Amino acid sequence: MKHPSTADTPDEEKQLRCIWRSQPYDLSQLRGAVGSFFQHIAWGDVVAVQAPMGTGKTTFVSALAQVLGAQDVASSPTFALCQEYPLEERAGSTEKQTIRHLDLYRIQHDSELRGLGWDELMEDAGAITLVEWPERAADHFPDRAKLLRIERQPDGLRLASLWVRETA
Questions:
Q1: What stretch of H or E contains 30?
Q2: How many Å apart are CA 97 and CA 88, to the nearest integer?
Q3: In which order are the strands placed within the sheet that holds 46-50?
Q4: How confident is the model at residue 4 (pLDDT cuts 50, 70, 90)?
Q5: Backbone dihedral angles phi then psi of residue 29, each to the nearest 5 degrees
Q6: 14, 35, 60, 113: which has the highest count of C-beta atoms within 10 A?
Q7: Do the beta carbons of residue 147 and residue 166 sit within 8 Å?
Q8: Measuring CA to CA, how many Å separate 138 from each of 4, 34, 145, 156?
Q9: Could you read off the pLDDT of 63-109 as tens digits, one per residue?
Q10: Nearest-CA neighbor of 142 among 124, 122, 162, 127?
Q11: In degrees rounded to 5, what are phi and psi of residue 131?
C-alpha cells in the first residue's frame, strides 16, 4: 500500500484508521479471530497482509478459507504467487465467491504484476483478495484496499488489526 501520508493531490492527505483489533489469539483461538475479522470485510475487498516472516500470515488466510467453506485448504502460494480457493456454492447465490491469496515475496520488479493480471485481480467483486508482502506492490493497490497487520506478542500469542485509508 502507498505510504499513509501519500496524497493524490496536495490538499488531500490519506490517514490510516484502525477499524478492528483482535483479542490476543493462539492456534486454538484462530477461527474465532478470523470470524471476527470477516465481519469487517466484504466481497470485492483487497487486503494487504503485513507481518514479519513466520508470524502466521498464511495460517490466517488458511483459517479464513476454511471458515468460509473453501473447497480446498489454503497453503502458501509462494511458488505459484497466486492461489484461489473457490467457496462451495450457497443456496440462492448466483455468483461464484473465491478467496484469493497472493504472495509477492518472489516479485523482483513491479512489472511482474502485469503477468499476474494485477489490475483485474484488484477489481474482482466475487473475491476477497489477500496479499502477502504487499510492499512489493506498494504503489499498485487500489485506494480502497485495507491493511491487515499481524503481530507476535512476547507471550507467543498473535494480535491482528485491520486498517482503512481515510481522507483527512
A1: helix 30-38
A2: 8
A3: 14-21, 158-167, 146-152, 46-50, 127-132, 98-103, 82-86
A4: very low
A5: -110, 5
A6: 60
A7: no
A8: 11, 25, 11, 29
A9: 999 999 987 665 555 567 899 999 987 655 667 899 999 999 999 99
A10: 122
A11: -125, 115
Beta bridge partners of 129: 46, 100
Report the amino acid identity of residue 56: G
Dihedral sign (CA 156, 69, 146, 2): positive
- pTM, 2 dp: 0.87
Q: Residue 16 is which amino acid?
A: L
CB atoms within 10 A of CB 39: 8
The residues near 133 (Cβ < 8 Å, ≥ 6 apart) are 103, 104, 105, 107
**Cell numbers linked to 168:** 483527512
Joined together, the cell numbers standing for residue 38 give 470477516
**Other beta carbons less than 10 A from residue 97's beta carbon:** 19
Instruction: Please report how many Cα atoms fall inside a 13 Å half-sphere around the Cα of residue 86, on the Cβ side.
Output: 5
